[in-house]
Amino acid sequence: MKGSMKIFANAVVTLNFKLFDTDGELIEQNSAPVTYLHGGYSGIFPKVEEALNFKTAGDVIKLSLEPTDAFGDYDPALVRLESLADLPPDTAVGGYLSAGDEEGQAWRVTEISENKAVLDGNHELAGQRVLFECTVLDVRAATDEEIEHGHAHEAHGRCH
To answer: What's the rounded Cα separation, in Å, for the pair 70 and 128?
Structure first.
């Protein structure tokens, strides 16, 4: 699109994305457009953000992300064995629990047997290479308030 605004630091970018495994199988795609503040605000993977520099609405990028560029390496230290008696009664495989002692840490229940549950604090895609594809839908300059807050706001108000 000729004359469209290019992506640069402090631009608000809206895109659609798809995430594939290394066999090309779709793992995830957004159900609604994703909007983030470009320029190192942790709104998107840094390698993706770098690839989006100077792109415009309509551009498509495709890139392979190593674990360190995406969901991190798998850390065995983030796997715990806990007694079911110490967990909520509705604990089930595939569910998530949050720990009060670690800020924001989510634990996925991966196995339950013999009154014990295996909890995994790794992201489900940790340790995996993934293929990321996105289409830029819109690019606009961020407002002073968005830059101050370090994230994009919704079209009709704040996104907090």
So the answer is: 9
Residues 93/112, Cβ–Cβ less than 8 Å:
yes
**Rounded CA gap, 66 and 71, in Å?**
9
Q: pLDDT band at residue 1, thresholds of 50, 70 and 90?
A: very low
Strand residues in the chain grouped as ranges (E): 11-20, 26-29, 34-37, 60-65, 79-83, 96-98, 106-113, 116-120, 130-141
Q: Are 31 and 16 in contact, with CB atoms under 8 Å apart?
A: no
pLDDT digits (tens, 9 = 90+) for 37-85: 999 998 899 999 999 999 999 999 999 999 999 999 999 999 999 999 9
In order of start, what are the domains of the chain with their CATH numbers?
11-71+128-149 (3.10.50.40), 76-120 (2.40.10)
